[in-house]
From TrEMBL:
It catalyses: tRNA(Val) + L-valine + ATP = L-valyl-tRNA(Val) + AMP + diphosphate. Residues 14-586 form the Aminoacyl-tRNA synthetase class Ia domain. GO terms for biological process: valyl-tRNA aminoacylation. This is Valine--tRNA ligase. Its EC number is 6.1.1.9. InterPro entries: aa-tRNA-synth_I_CS, aa-tRNA-synth_Ia, Anticodon_Ia_Val, M/V/L/I-tRNA-synth_anticd-bd, Rossmann-like_a/b/a_fold, tRNAsynth_Ia_anticodon-bd, Val/Leu/Ile-tRNA-synth_edit, Valyl-tRNA_ligase. Residues 659-769 form the Methionyl/Valyl/Leucyl/Isoleucyl-tRNA synthetase anticodon-binding domain. The keyword Acetylation does not apply. GO terms for cellular component: cytosol. It comes from Candidatus Roizmanbacteria bacterium RIFCSPHIGHO2_02_FULL_38_11. PANTHER family: VALINE--TRNA LIGASE, CHLOROPLASTIC_MITOCHONDRIAL 2 (PTHR11946:SF93), VALYL-TRNA SYNTHETASES (PTHR11946). It comes from the Bacteria.
RNA sequence: GAGCUCGUAGCUCAGCGGCAGAGCGUUCGAUUCACAUUCGAAAGGCCGAUGGUUCAAAUCCAUCCGAGCUCACCA
C-alpha cells in the first residue's frame, strides 16, 4: 500500500471493474428504484449535478443492504434551453432560425445535440455513479414519443385539452410563449405618464398601447367618476378623436394615480381578464415580432420601446401629457432566459385544464402517500398546486415534440396563417390560400414550412384532428408547428423509463431526488401525469436537494466569475473528496456551499481511511507470516508478569470499542433510512477518525509501547503479546471493515480500493452486505 | 400582500428540549512510529432581541428586529 491514497491512480480502474462486472446493474433482491432526473442532453457537468451524489448514495446503500437497487439514467432534449443555445451558436455565424425551414432547423439542432451529448455521462462516471448507463432514455426516443403523444391524445379525447387564444407572456426575442413559471419579475424604475384622456387624466407606463384601448375603467365605489360610468366619452388622441366606453371594475385601485385606468385587453393580462368580464373587443396593435402594426397609423413597424418614445414625444407636442413621474418603481416581467421584457401577447395556445387533474395530486400529497424530504416542501408544493392554473403547453420552437394536430386545409385557406421558405429560397408569409393560388404547391409549402398559426375563429372554427400521422383520407392537412413544453414530456419521465415487466415490480419507484427549484415545474407534473395515466403515484419519496453555491453562498454564474468546475476538483482531489464535500456538514434545504478548502478536508479524510487500512494491513501481514513462530512460543514466560495489566487494559478497550461501534451503527442506520446523509457521514467521520484512529489505535500503540513493543515490522515484533495482538487486530479489522461499508455510499473509491487490498483485486465491497 | 426559510465560533454551517459542536482559519507544541493530506493542545460563543411554556430552552410558543427564497399583485 502506498503512503497516500492517490485517487487518480485507482478511480478509473475501479470504475471499469464495476462496469465490467455488471455491478452497475440491478442484482437480485427486493426492488429499489431511482430514476435519474435527466440532464440536458447537450449539457456538461456543472457543480449542481454533483448533488446527484445523493441518489448514488441511496443506490449504493440499498445495494449493500441487500436490495436490488437500480438507477436508470436519461437525458432531456430540453426544448427551449437547447434551441436557445443553438441559436446563440447560429448568431455567431451571422445566421438566425429564420434562415431555415422548420425541418432543417430541427435536424441541425438534433445533430448539434448528438455531437455534444455523451459528455455528461462520462463525467458522471468520473463521479462514480452506479447507474445502468446502457438503459439510458432520451426524451425524444421512440417509446417516449409514443407515450407522450398517447397521453396527449387521451387527454384531448377526454376533454382536458383545449385551444384558446389566451394572453401569454411572449418573448419577442426568443420567439416563444412562456409559462408563468418561466418568467422573472424584476423591480425597476420607469416613467409613469399621466395622459389626458377625454375628461380624465390617467396614469400608464405603456402609452404606446393606447391604440389598443377598448375601455376606460374606474372603481365602482369611486364617487369622482360615477357620472361617467356606462357612458361613452370622447377622447382626442394621436390618431384623431374617438369614442370609448367607461366601465366600472373592482380591479381598479382608487388610490393609484388618478383612479382611472385604460383597458387594453390585447396587451395586458389584467386588462384581458377585465375585457372578458365586460365583453370588450380585443384590439391587437403589437405583432408577435414586437412591432406595432397597421392599426397604429404612423407608428407601424416601430418596436415597442421606440414607439413609446415617439408616442410620448407626439403626445407632448399635442399637449396631451399632464405630467410624468420619472421615478415610478414597479416590477416588470422579463424572460428568464434572455432577460428582456416580455410582451403580453395573444396567440393561440394549447392548454391543459388542470382543475380536475390536480385534485388527486393534492390528495396524495396531503395524505402523505408521497413524502417530502425535507418536510417543509410538502407545504410549498401544496401551496403551489392551489394556485396552479391551466397550463399552456405550446411552444413556438422547432426543437421538441411536435403537437400531433392536423388542420384541414379545405375551406380554411384564409384562416390558416403560415410562414415558409419557398423553392427559390424566398421567405413568404400570409394565409395558406394566398400561396396555394399562386402556383405554390402544398408540398412545397410543407417542405419549407416555418410556422403555422391558426387563430381562434369564433363562428367558424378551423377543423382539426389529433393524429400522430397525417390523416390519409384524400384531403389536404397541415400539421401544427408548435411543440410541447419540455415539461410536458419530462413530466412523463416515470411513465417512459421502466420496462413493461418492471412496471409490475418497480412502480411506484422509491425516491425522486431533484433540485427544490423545479418542484412546481416537474415534480407536481410527474405526479399529475402518473395519477392520470396509471392511476398510481410515480414515486414514494421526494428528496429535494439544495443549490450548490460558492463558498460565500453566492450563486455561481459566469458573469461573477465564481463558477467552480467539478471535474477540475475531481482531478485534483478525487471524486470521493468532491462527493463528500457536498454532503458533509450540510443541512436540509437552502444552499450547499462548495469551497476548495472543504474538498481538501474531505480528501484528507479519504486519505485517513486509506491509512487506517494501511496500518491494519501492515501489522496484519506481519502477524500472519509469523503466526507459526508465535504460536510455538506461546508458553514462553518472558514478560508474563508485566504483560498482565496492559493485556487487561487492551481487553477493556476492545470492549469499549465494540460498544461504541454498536451505537454508531445503530445511529447510522437510522440516519440513512431517514435520508439524513450529512449526519450519517458526520457520524462515521467522527467515529473513524476521532475515536477509532485517534483514540483506539493510538491507545493501543502506546500500550504496546509500554511493553517495549512497536506494532511495527517483523523482527521488532515481540512474540509475547501475539495472542492478544492477533485478537486486537482482528477486532479492529472487523470494526474497520464494517465502517468501510458504511462509508462506501459516500466515498466509493477509497473504500473499494482498500477492500481490494485486503480481499483481492477481484473482490468488491459492492458484493458485501451491511447487516443491521 | 401571502407563504416558507434562515440569524449559533473569524468564515461556511451542523445540532432543534438534557454538558454549546464540526470543517476551514488563528495561536502554541510534537515528529524516524499508518497518515505533515499527521498528532497533541489553546484561543475564540449573552446560540439575533424580548417575553412565555418547562424541573430543564440554541432547541417549543408569541412578538419584534435583520437576511434570503417562492408565489401573487402593481395602470
Amino acid at each position: 500500500m502506498d503512503k497516500k491514497f492517490i485517487p487518480s491512480q485507482v478511480e478509473e480502474r475501479i470504475y471499469e471493474f464495476w462496469e465490467e462486472n455488471s455491478l452497475l446493474k440491478a442484482k437480485n433482491g427486493k426492488p429499489f428504484t431511482i430514476l435519474m432526473p435527466p440532464p440536458n442532453a447537450n449539457a456538461s457537468l456543472h457543480a449542481g449535478h454533483g448533488m446527484y451524489t445523493v441518489e448514488d448514495i441511496l443506490i449504493r446503500y440499498k445495494r449493500l443492504r441487500g436490495f436490488s437497487s437500480l438507477w436508470i439514467p436519461g437525458t432531456d432534449h430540453a426544448g427551449f434551453e437547447t434551441q436557445y443555445v443553438y441559436e446563440k451558436h447560429l448568431a455567431k455565424q451571422g445566421k438566425s432560425r429564420f434562415d431555415f425551414n422548420r425541418q432543417t432547423l430541427y435536424d441541425n439542432i438534433s445533430k448539434f445535440v448528438k455531437d455534444n451529448s455523451g459528455l455528461i455521462y462520462s463525467q458522471f462516471r468520473k463521479l462514480g455513479f452506479l447507474a445502468d448507463w446502457k438503459r439510458s432514455v432520451f426524451t425524444l426516443d421512440k417509446n417516449v414519443l409514443e407515450t407522450v403523444l398517447g397521453t396527449f391524445t387521451k387527454m384531448e379525447k377526454e376533454g382536458y385539452i383545449y385551444k384558446d387564444e389566451y394572453i401569454v407572456n411572449y418573448c419577442t426575442h426568443c420567439g416563444t410563449s412562456l409559462s408563468e413559471l418561466e418568467t422573472v419579475h424584476v423591480e425597476r424604475k420607469d416613467p409613469l405618464y399621466y395622459l389626458k384622456y377625454g375628461p380624465f387624466v390617467l396614469a400608464t407606463v405603456r402609452p404606446e398601447t393606447k391604440f389598443g384601448d377598448t375601455a376606460v375603467a374606474v372603481h365602482p365605489k369611486d364617487r369622482r367618476y360615477k357620472k361617467w360610468v356606462g357612458k361613452e366619452i370622447e377622447v382626442k388622441g394621436l390618431l384623431g378623436r374617438f369614442k370609448i366606453k367607461v366601465i366600472e371594475d373592482e380591479m381598479v385601485d382608487m388610490k393609484f394615480g388618478t383612479g382611472v385606468v385604460k383597458i387594453t385587453p390585447a396587451h395586458d393580462p389584467n386588462d384581458f381578464e377585465a375585457g372578458k368580464r365586460h365583453g370588450l373587443e380585443v384590439k391587437r396593435i403589437i405583432n408577435i415580432d414586437g412591432r406595432l402594426n397597421e392599426l397604429t397609423g404612423p407608428y407601424v413597424g416601430l418596436k415597442v420601446k421606440q414607439a413609446r418614445m415617439k408616442v410620448v414625444e407626439d403626445l407632448k407636442i399635442k399637449g396631451l401629457i399632464e405630467k410624468i413621474d420619472e421615478n415610478y418603481a414597479h416590477s416588470v416581467t422579463v424572460c428568464y432566459k434572455c432577460g428582456r421584457d416580455l410582451e403580453p401577447t395573444i396567440i393561440p395556445n394549447w392548454f391543459i385544464k388542470v382543475k380536475e387533474l390536480k385534485k388527486p395530486v393534492i390528495g396524495v400529497i396531503e395524505k402523505e402517500k408521497i413524502k417530502f424530504f425535507p418536510k417543509r416542501y410538502k407545504k410549498q408544493i401544496l401551496q403551489w398546486l392551489k394556485v396552479m392554473h391551466d397550463w399552456p403547453i405550446s411552444r413556438q420552437i422547432a426543437w421538441g415534440i411536435r403537437i400531433p394536430v392536423w388542420y384541414l386545409v379545405k375551406d380554411n385557406e384564409n384562416k390558416i396563417w403560415i410562414s415558409f421558405i419557398d423553392k427559390n429560397r424566398e421567405f413568404k408569409k400570409g394565409t395558406i390560400g394566398q400561396y396555394l393560388d399562386k402556383s405554390h404547391s402544398l408540398s412545397e409549402i410543407k417542405q419549407g414550412l416555418q410556422q403555422v398559426t391558426v387563430p381562434i375563429y369564433k363562428r367558424e372554427k378551423v377543423k382539426y384532428v389529433v393524429s400522430v400521422k397525417e390523416p390519409q383520407d384524400g384531403q389536404d392537412w397541415i400539421q401544427e408547428t408548435d411543440t410541447f413544453d419540455t415539461w410536458f414530456s419530462s413530466g412523463q419521465w416515470p411513465l417512459v423509463t421502466l420496462s413493461k415487466e418492471e412496471y409490475k415490480t418497480r412502480f411506484p419507484t422509491d425516491v425522486m431526488g431533484t433540485l427544490a427549484d423545479i418542484l412546481p415545474f416537474w415534480v407536481s407534473r410527474m405526479v399529475m401525469f402518473s395519477l392520470y395515466v396509471k392511476k398510481e403515484i410515480p414515486f414514494k419519496n421526494v428528496y429535494l436537494w439544495s443549490k450548490v453555491v460558492d463558498s460565500k453562498g453566492q450563486k455561481m454564474s459566469k458573469s461573477k466569475g465564481n463558477v467552480i468546475n467539478p471535474i477540475d476538483l475531481v482531478n485534483r482531489y478525487g471524486a470521493d473528496a468532491f462527493r463528500a464535500s457536498l454532503i458533509f456538514g450540510t443541512g436540509s434545504g437552502g444552499n450547499v456551499p462548495l469551497a476548495e478548502e472543504k474538498v481538501i478536508g474531505m480528501r484528507n479524510f479519504a486519505n485517513k481511511i486509506w491509512n487506517i487500512g494501511r496500518f491494519i494491513w501492515m501489522n496484519r501481514s506481519v502477524i500472519l507470516s509469523e503466526t507459526k513462530d508465535l504460536l510455538r512460543m506461546r508458553d514462553s514466560n518472558k514478560l508474563r508478569d508485566s504483560s498482565a495489566k496492559p493485556q487487561n487494559d487492551i481487553e477493556k478497550a476492545l470492549k469499549n470499542l465494540q460498544k461504541e461501534f454498536a451505537e454508531e451503527k445503530k445511529k447510522y442506520l437510522r440516519f440513512m433510512d431517514s435520508y439524513k446523509f450529512s449526519q450519517a457521514l458526520g457520524l462515521v467521520y467522527e467515529f473513524l477518525w476521532r475515536r477509532f484512529a485517534d483514540y483506539y489505535i493510538e491507545e493501543l500503540k502506546s500500550r504496546l509501547n509500554t511493553l517495549g513493543l512497536t506494532p511495527r515490522i517483523g523482527s521488532e515484533l515481540k512474540e509475547e503479546l501475539r495472542t492478544g495482538k492477533i485478537r486486537v487486530l482482528d477486532e479492529l479489522q472487523n470494526v474497520y471493515f464494517e465502517n468501510l461499508k458504511m462509508l462506501h455510499p459516500f466515498i466509493p473509491f477509497v473504500t473499494e480500493a482498500v477492500w481490494k487490498v485486503f480481499k483481492g483485486e477481484n473482490s468488491s465491497i459492492l458484493l458485501e452486505r451491511l447487516k443491521s
